[in-house]
Design a protein that fits this description.
Radius of gyration: 20 Å
CATH topology of the largest domain: Quinone Oxidoreductase, Chain A, domain 1
Helix content: 25-40%
Largest sheet: 7 strands, mixed
Keywords: NADP, Oxidoreductase
Protein name: NADPH2:quinone reductase
Number of helices: 8
Distance between the termini: 14 Å
Order of helices and strands: EEEHEEEEHEHEHEHEEEHHEHE
InterPro entries: ADH-like_C (IPR013149), ADH-like_N (IPR013154), ER (IPR020843), GroES-like_sf (IPR011032), NAD(P)-bd_dom_sf (IPR036291), QOR-like (IPR047618)
GO molecular function: mRNA 3'-UTR AU-rich region binding; NADPH binding; quinone reductase (NADPH) activity
Pfam family, one: ADH_zinc_N
Oligomer: single chain
């Protein structure tokens, strides 16, 4: 038996229950890993609250990303072995000292990247990768707006997009977060609590607007995000930290400039083993080379995951956060 955080009924952070669970042995195509660090993400709150339904109902163990040591492997597993350091973004179940993971979701952590960094960057870093390199191919001619620039994905995306030569504009909610974003690749950062971001985008771009807007905020930034785009620009809605967008009007895209809109998810982009290895490999390369620095700004004990959720929901965190078993 090991300790884990489980959710028996969805709701607030009090729904997280610290209790013993039986892990069992890995079956064919599976591996049992001992976590050394677990990533904290807003999607964990979506599942805990019930906004996203857990695939197998309740009770469930939340958490989608982690890093650790392979303890044992099942039959038909050859690309990893006991003792390997591995990381993953995979099915729910990361908030546990040990767990079973489908082996094809595990990637080896390269030398030069520690376990905390790996756990903190897999979901956020691969999200930044697909947003900047696949959903829209960012380059020197690109002007982009990234909401929540001081968040975990935002800080990675700012550095990466800056390296790609783009004009990188962000929004943040405090003077401290504005400065943090500026230190991580953003040439312009708008404090959305004191400035109208639509008006500021018009000023910054000379009225031209952005090629692409990356929006993980949702309710609070819609439909303003659409007004920040050039004609035929792309609105990428990949989260809803302020609440879901209600009554999205597809017809609105026409008069606002024949805009494009997409609602991508990381799990679609890494569904195949080949796509997972390519996306993770690209991320590892930019981190190892120093192009992107991953700052783990908060650490909590796994047993204190309730406080971690409260702080994340209260926008008291910056960058990446890990839970330590």
């Amino acid at each position: 038996m090991v300790m884990a955080m489980r959710v028996h009924e969805t709701g607030g952070s009090d729904a997280l229950t610290w209790e013993k669970v039986d892990v069992g042995e890995p079956g064919p195509g599976e591996a049992r890993i001992r976590h050394t660090a677990i990533g904290l993400n807003f999607i964990d709150i979506y599942f805990r609250s019930g906004l996203y339904p857990a695939p197998n109902g309740t009770p469930f163990i939340p958490g989608n990303e982690g890093a650790g040591i392979v303890e044992t492997v099942g039959a038909n597993v050859s690309h990893i072995q006991p003792g390997d350091r591995v990381a993953y973004v995979g099915p729910l179940g990361a908030y546990a000292q040990e767990r079973i993971v489908p082996a094809d979701r595990l990637v080896a952590i390269p030398d030069g990247i520690d376990d905390k960094t790996a756990a903190a960057m897999m979901l956020k870093g691969m999200t930044a990768q697909y947003l900047l390199r696949q959903t829209y191919d960012v380059g020197p001619e690109t002007t982009l707006l990234f909401h929540a620039a001081a968040g975990g994905v935002g800080l990675i995306a700012g550095q990466w997009a800056g390296h790609l030569g783009a004009t990188v504009i962000g929004t943040a909610g405090s003077p401290e977060k504005v400065e943090l974003a500026k230190a991580n690749g953003y040439q312009h950062v708008i404090n959305y609590r004191t400035e109208n971001f639509v008006e500021r985008i018009a000023e910054i771009t000379g009225g031209r607007g952005c090629d692409v807007v990356y929006d993980s905020v949702g309710q609070d930034t819609y439909p303003g995000s659409l007004d920040c785009l050039k004609p035929r620009g792309l609105w990428v809605s990949f989260g809803q930290s302020s609440g879901p967008i209600k009554d999205f009007n597809l017809a609105l895209l026409g008069p606002k400039g024949s805009l494009y809109a997409t609602r991508p998810t990381l799990f679609t982009y890494i569904a195949s083993r080949a796509d997972l290895e390519k996306t993770a490999g690209d991320l590892f390369d930019v981190v190892k080379s120093g192009i992107v620095k991953i700052d783990v700004n908060q650490e909590y004990r796994l047993a204190d995951a309730k406080q971690a959720h409260d702080d994340l929901e209260g926008r008291k965190t910056t960058g990446t956060t890990v839970l330590i078993p």
